[in-house]
Amino acid sequence: MIKIGDYNTLDIIRESEQGLYLSDEDGNEVLLPNRYIPETFKIWDPLEVFVYLDNEERPVAVTDDPYVTVNDFAVLRCNQVTQHGAFLDWGMVKELFCPFKEQAYKMKAGGWYLIYCYLDDETNRLVASSKTNSFLDNKQLTVKQFDEVDLIVSHPSELGMNVIVNKQHLGLIFQDDIYKELSVGDKLKGIVKKVRHDNKLDITLGQIGYRNIEPNAELILNTLEDNNGFLPLTDKSNPEQIKLELEMSKKSFKKAIGSLYKQRLITIEKDGIRLV
């Protein structure tokens, strides 16, 4: 099956006045126009091409590289706005259409927008949407606490910056964890700082040593975050108090806070421990 809006490796099966005809394993054919024909080729040579719909809504193969492929995110420039919607520059001869109903905010010519490219089931056309949250789902998470993840900066909020996590989920970097300037569309690495009870993801950009943290230390970190970053417990606290608060022994508690202290994730004060 030839994939619309994506790269395909197809075989050259014949030459015509219009160009080369390419085919997949199932015999589906698509035209590679003359302007894209390589200098040298042989029949049955494999060729990697990008396939999309031309101005007459016919599948066409090209050797150009688009700025975005189907089911992916990108920041694109709006070339023009008509009565039908906005048309975006995505590196192809035919511009990428974004209907008004798919615009989070009304687009303007010359503006840059974070969009998601998808294949419209009704029209079988590639369409852009700036309502990117609609294509993210946190109901079934594919990440867990302390995982390293790929991020795309989405949009600011009162609490910090919303980010797209692994192109699947929505996350938030709190303002206190932002140590450099971020712009919409920036791609960077991050770490899942916390998975909240409603599957909301707290993300940090800091290189914290969470991957190898022991379970008891992880529990203490979670408890600290749920208690505004402070617990009235120290290595001198009563064992029963530690057991009541954390359901662990005093020995395990001391070992865990020692590990957290060495990693500079907490400070130990006279009356308790505090999250850095």
How would you describe this structure to a colleague?
This protein has 276 residues and is mainly beta. It folds into four domains: 6-62, OB fold (Dihydrolipoamide Acetyltransferase, E2P); 72-133, OB fold (Dihydrolipoamide Acetyltransferase, E2P); 148-204, Beta Barrel (OB fold (Dihydrolipoamide Acetyltransferase, E2P)); 215-275, Orthogonal Bundle (Arc Repressor Mutant, subunit A), CATH 1.10.10. It has three helices and 18 strands. It has helices at 215-226, 239-246, 250-262, and strands at residues 6-15, 19-23, 29-33, 46-53, 59-62, 72-81, 85-89, 96-99, 112-119, 126-129, 148-156, 160-165, 169-174, 187-195, 201-204, 230-231, 266-269, 272-275. The chain has a five-stranded antiparallel sheet, with no helix packed on it. Strand 6 and strand 7 form a beta hairpin. Helix 1 (215-226) packs across helix 3. The longest helix has 13 residues, at 250-262. The chain is elongated, with a radius of gyration of 26 Å. The N and C termini lie far apart (53 Å). The model has no long low-confidence stretch (mean pLDDT 92).
